[in-house]
Amino acid sequence: MKLSDLAKRLDDEFCIIKNDENLTDFAVVDDNKHFINNDFIKHKTALMTENSKDIEIVLTSVFITDEVVKKACKYKNALLVTHHNFDYFEDERGLQPIKSEYLKEFQRYSISIYVAHAPLDTHKIYGTSKCLAEWCGIAIEKYFYDYYGAPTALIGHINKTSFEVFSDFIQKKLERPVLTLEKNKDYIEKIAVVAGGGDLPDLLQQVYDYGCDTLLTGTVEHRWAVPFIQEGNRQFHELNKKLNINLIGGTHYGTERPAMIKFLDYMINLGIDCKYIEDNTLLGIK
């Protein structure tokens, strides 16, 4: 398929022109700017880099890390559909701009990048929280918490289960060596699901107001060395001392991974060869 045709199809699917999210903030920097598609900078498309005319395979990923780059470069004439146009570390470094050497390698192997962030988070089929809930067998009841004009979080339920049994189940489903857990109630039944960075005080308040006993999210313990993020995480935990919501954290990567695997279905329906690129380092981090 022609890259231009596929990018146009994806832009339409995700309503890129209508979405107000700025994909260039902190991602496009002096070090990598000369690799970036001009129309991406102008918010005309979510095609971040354009390195081939034709696409033989579509790859998906959560972030663009060193491991993802090495695995992606086993292919040529590929489109990498990523949820985040950032490198990522589950430590004080957090999100980092994609290194120019990574983008140079992608040029060498004719690999282009398409970014599906907020419009994927809130997508009716491939939304990150929706896919996480389905992955974990949680029956969805309603959506909430506006994110660029559409809800990104959801409320669901399971049969009444002990905190320990459900946490163990989630750990196995997400293929994580550990979870970040805070137990405040013995049983789980009504769950709020927020893939990725869900450690937000206002979101937690809504979780409580909707009568949920548990929040399943990515980030419970925030390690990024960014003052306002650390302060937000502190306020999140201070509030929960009053609300007493069970917290289950599967990491940012671990909880957004199901959506990028599920998105392969979109490409399969188009008849395009596709593959999810795993970052085993992020998946297995403790």
Automatic annotation (TrEMBL):
Binding-site positions, a divalent metal cation: H83, H84, D121, H252, E256
Keywords carried by this UniProt record: Metal-binding
Gene Ontology terms: cellular component: cytoplasm
Keyword Metal-binding carried by entry: yes
Single GO molecular function: metal ion binding
Pfam hit, one: DUF34_NIF3
Region forming the signal peptide: none
Matching InterPro entries: DUF34/NIF3, DUF34/NIF3_sf
Entry's family note: Belongs to the GTP cyclohydrolase I type 2/NIF3 family.
Name under which the protein is recorded: NGG1p interacting factor 3 protein, NIF3
Organism lineage string: Bacteria, Pseudomonadati, Spirochaetota, Spirochaetia, Spirochaetales
